[in-house]
Amino acid sequence: MADLVGGVLYSFAALFIILDPILSVPIFAAMTKGQAPAEIHRQALIAIAVAGGLMYLFLFCNTFIFDLLGLTLPSFQIAGGVLLFILGIQETLGIDLGKSKEKSTTPAGVVIGTPLLCGPGAITTVMLLSNDYGILIPFIAITLSLAATWLILYFAETIQKILGDVVTDIMGKVLGMFLAAIAIKIITSGILALNIL
Q: Which of 44, 75, 82, 192 has the greatest number of C-beta atoms within 10 Å?
């Protein structure tokens, strides 16, 4: 029992840090600004559903998907890094890429769900945890981390109000630069890994 609890706590901590929902608060708040509370809550649920769907998929299928498609983790890192870099530039400069007015509510949940919450780092962590602990412990940890992340996104507007618009705007731009930097690191790691394959 102690091993189960310890494994769950460790796995939860690792996943929660990788998901980093606090990082998503100013970005999520900015992308859903002006929308009705019900729509904001729906976008939070979509984000969790997208992130959770990918995490559970890779937990149960592990490397089968990559093998089936003939892909490698480094190639996934590069693709995810490029998407994350675009998001970082978008948030830093305050521009919208590939977003039409008719579908203005679509990107928030999807983009926050992946690659921001569930990107190469989260998928890699899930795969490593499944190798170390099997299925049960990572499954519980994923569920707990998603529940905690949903609560943070659900109350993102309240958190934003506490921080204030100016602080949130500054945080969004600074975090956008951090996102771009993290993306470059992910892309570089993917390229280096491809070179040694």
A: 44
